[in-house]
Amino acid sequence: MFETAELGRTVSKAEFRQAEQELHSRILQLQQKLRNSTRSLIIIVSGVEGAGKGEVVDRLNRWLDSRDVQTHAFWDETDEEIQRPRYWRYWRCLPARGSVAIMFGSWYTSPIVNLALGQSDQADLDEEINRINSLEQTLSVDGAIIVKLWFHLPRQIQKQRLESDAKVSKFKKSPLLEDFSKSYDAFLSVSERAIRLSDTGYAPWHIIEASDLRYRDIAMGSILVNCLQEALDDEQEPATNSPARPGHLLDDDDIIAGVLKSGASKTTVLDSVDLSQHLDPASYDEQLPALQEKLGQLAWQLFQQRRNTVMVFEGWDGAGKGSAIRRVTSAMDARLYRVIPIAAPSDEELAHHYLWRFWRHIPRAGHMTIYDRSWYGRVLVERVEKFASKQQWLRSYQEINEFEEQLVDHGTILCKFWIHIDQDEQLRRFKLRQQDPRKQHKITDEDWRNRDKWHAYEEAVNDLVAHTSTSRTPWTLMAGNDKKFARVQILKTICERMALASQ
Amino acid sequence: MFETAELGRTVSKAEFRQAEQELHSRILQLQQKLRNSTRSLIIIVSGVEGAGKGEVVDRLNRWLDSRDVQTHAFWDETDEEIQRPRYWRYWRCLPARGSVAIMFGSWYTSPIVNLALGQSDQADLDEEINRINSLEQTLSVDGAIIVKLWFHLPRQIQKQRLESDAKVSKFKKSPLLEDFSKSYDAFLSVSERAIRLSDTGYAPWHIIEASDLRYRDIAMGSILVNCLQEALDDEQEPATNSPARPGHLLDDDDIIAGVLKSGASKTTVLDSVDLSQHLDPASYDEQLPALQEKLGQLAWQLFQQRRNTVMVFEGWDGAGKGSAIRRVTSAMDARLYRVIPIAAPSDEELAHHYLWRFWRHIPRAGHMTIYDRSWYGRVLVERVEKFASKQQWLRSYQEINEFEEQLVDHGTILCKFWIHIDQDEQLRRFKLRQQDPRKQHKITDEDWRNRDKWHAYEEAVNDLVAHTSTSRTPWTLMAGNDKKFARVQILKTICERMALASQ
């Protein structure tokens, strides 16, 4: 989920100055409009430690006209608060119509911190998120505009940031910092779940890459302006229950791109894959058989342990999915796995929900199913070719997450690979295929047509990673320009996952 | 919640015969229409033991054309099922487009039974209901028509039913029966929560009174016909996310009334209040001071224990709310309670969500707030007078339930009274007020106008009980024709609740 907020986007000083002025005056105009409306504005500022939430709150207070703006920090509960139901402290801070509340920390803070520190369990978090969703829905249908901002930092940058903060001022260092940094993974995996479950149509999350301070502030401002504009333009009663629109990353990118001209925001996760990686033939010849032998043993071991495995192979046409799958299957006893190539659905499959055809092939205990293309077709080809409506593919992120969650809850080992190549490499392979009589059947007019939609697919893959790569069901983006490198890396990844599971 | 399914509705043999024929042919017509559509039908049959779920399933199979109908009973998981994620067993039973699945037992069964038997906790139930809601939404937006039927029996009738069942046939007696009957309360309170949390716009629950077998079957048939009609008339794509319409009891009553002509279904909970109850003046003079003394002591005791109390008084104009409240307050130290009379909201209150004005007055630890009229105005006067839109008051049931749940989760003692009188008694009291110069100010033109809306208020009270009377936040419907009886009963109820809480 957070991979798409680790792309190293930056904004230059000059660009910042111009955009900042523009945003400042837009925000003041919109605040005036808000003041004369029946709506209120709640800005929730959250994210990892070190992302500069305090600076963000300061910036917001500078941008907004301070009349009718209140900033609330939720520290320890007061005496008055402890004596009443928990949400009383939030209800008393809710802004009146026409005014603004900036929530520095919010109803999200304690459920996330408690679970990350092991003081509660996942069911507690889920229960609390239900409560939060209800509250946000209640406020939103009553006219509140809820803007939820999550500021993200990659591990390495967080570490640097915290260390330099600590040098500058002991005072600013929260006592929890040390724990947080240590439990970066725990905190992120909990946050990811909280965000995913509370990313609703009436109060969506906006994940902002906070490594570059200028990019962070411009992104935040652009998103705020857009949310206010949309809400205040809409003169009707606020939507009672707009369909869950899971995630807005790409939409946000477009919005930020409208403010910035440099295109910093239009990077996708695929740009972060280093396609120059390769493996020399000698190492390949040495590593491949060793890995295959290991895989064969692990498959038997997991059979005995009755653990099942599901593998998903996706990637560009010509990326080498088929040949990678063959390297996997040839390592294992044929009784242990099945390969399910996903082409057009059968009549019976069409008569059911699109996930039904994948549920059918879920392996029994100890077995493995390898999907050659998969349920992700919904958000790849069906999205790009418009076979599915936008509403259909948007909601399928959530459906897919729930499906995969059930797999891993059951104990299934799930590996998802996207094999990435660039356009030049694809062209080279297509031409090779055309020349080779044994491979001509593998290349069709459709493959050529798909090349024109390269950018649409890039966006689709970016969204797919943003929405369906979770800490429990991560995507592996595999550099595929060098086939040998890709095959060995895939086998390695699978062996690692299986070995971990079999312990 | 179940109070409105304990009204003793019956259907005569003659009426049954006619309605049954009508329903049978309507169902066959609609099934034919379903067959030619892209929709499928899932009927979930659940409810208390002894309600005749087996008979209902038989009846459904007789009514429907058996081609394209499958009945699924979910007993213990098979080997095949255990080896896969839990919902695999449900996915494999999902009906194809055009066909019907009758689920005898369903995804609801084990979460409810587990919690009722103490094998899981409430957070587990809530988590599972989230999963179920997602599944039902997934299926529903894909075209499935999900009809969820809950058959209810009052405790006494369940007991008789189970005993006579046991006499007729040892074979039909499930081994769980004995446990269930013992844990009737636990089972009902869990079911109530499960129903409440899964009563969504895309898959609402229908609670059916099952004491009279003929009424039960006609009610079921009428609801099924109506659901099919609505869904199949609607040629558009199914709503992706219709607003949660909590409960459909009254709508169902109207639908059933359309099939039956006797009006059996148009009874409301208020009809079940025995207004002939009274107390002679001598007993009143004896009991009142004793109860007041007890209440005074309990109030101090709860102050020391730092437990807070919230009381809600609602009722017809002239029912005696004010005089009942005075009997309560005069028993207690004035530092311990506040009475909040609810009239028109202030400017500041209007600028917030309608619940904000009630949150403000939530008492501190050890204190009590008595609301003279309350947040229920939203679903009473605002509903009847159309101050709130249907969507607004419909969604407020859920908002109110969540608000009250937070109170009781915090440990607040919550008492909710509806003081009931009949129209004649109200008229008598209004006339008395007009004649008494000290009371003339208490009667206005509005009071007279409200009398014309008696039936609308009856429906509103029925819905209010159906939706907001839960095992943790029950309504007390108090017979108020005899004021003395009502006052003593109210004091008794309060003392009992407080005494229980202070233990």
What would you note in describing this structure?
Two copies of one chain form a homodimer. By secondary structure, chain A is α/β, with parallel strands linked by helices. Chain A folds into two domains: 2-153 and 185-266, Rossmann fold (3-Layer(aba) Sandwich), CATH 3.40.50.300; 272-502, 3-Layer(aba) Sandwich (Rossmann fold), CATH 3.40.50.300. Chain A is built from 21 helices and ten strands. In chain A, the strands form two sheets. In chain A, strands 2-3-1-4-5 form a five-stranded parallel sheet, with helices on both faces. A five-stranded parallel sheet of chain A has the order 7-8-6-9-10, sandwiched between helices. In chain A, helix 10 packs across helix 11 (249-259), helix 12 packs parallel to helix 21 and helix 13 (321-329) packs across helix 21 (483-502). Residues 239-244 of chain A have low confidence and may be disordered.
Features:
homodimer, five-stranded parallel beta sheet, Rossmann fold, 503 residues, 2 domains, alpha/beta
Q: What is the second-level CATH architecture of the largest domain in chain A?
A: 3-Layer(aba) Sandwich
Count of DSSP helices of chain A?
21
- Specify which chain pair forms the largest interface: A-B, 59 and 59 residues
Overall number of structural domains of chain A: 2
